[in-house]
Amino acid sequence: MPERQSSRKDAIRNREAVLAAADTLFSRRESPEDVTMADVAAAAGVGKGTLFRAFGDRAGLLRALYEARLEPIRQAVETGPPPLGPATPPHDRVPALLDAVLCFKLDNRRLALALEEDGSSSPYRAEHYERWHSLLRAVLEQIPGLTDSDFTAHALLAATRADLVEHLAGEERMTREGMRAQLANFVTRVLASGPPRGLTAEE
């Protein structure tokens, strides 16, 4: 029994060391592709076998690091006060949720870009994307007169894609506050508009 507890503590300690090392490496490297599993293992002081057993592959490591950084936002969304928490009126909560996504990706540009580019399948099937989409769709469904909440949630999240954020922050040199203001204006227009005249969701 003591050996099992010791092994579990070692596994937890190794996992924390790996996440900390990966966090540092992704923050310092110019390109996410520059960070390899071997780099992370060396920085964490563990063998590559330990790394692969704990996370499966590079995508698994990226997801774990992403989720660890996202945890404070998730708690705020699930149980926190307004403007992110569940008691917030939907017209206020939708822009607040999207602003939180944008700020998170601005604060974690390289990691977010690496995760969204590293998936072997469609990025829209990724667990983190499906979770945000499901949440936004549910909140949008609470807004009277707004049709097709499923598509609207996709369209709104498209404005926070990591590659777009990287382009705007990098090549376009748009400021953080500029991006937040533009996104807020866009969301406000979407929520205020109805379906185009002569068109229905089925079309």
UniProtKB/TrEMBL annotation:
Task: Tell me which domain of life the UniProt entry assigns to the organism this sequence originates from.
Answer: Bacteria
Write out the entry's keywords from A to Z: DNA-binding
**Where in this chain does the record put each HTH tetR-type domain?**
12-73
Q: Which residues bind DNA?
A: 36-55
Q: Which InterPro entries match?
A: Homeodomain-like_sf, HTH-type_TetR-like_transc_reg, HTH_TetR, Tet_transcr_reg_TetR-rel_C_sf
Q: Which Pfam families match?
A: TetR_N
Keyword DNA-binding carried by entry = yes
According to UniProt, the name of this protein is TetR family transcriptional regulator
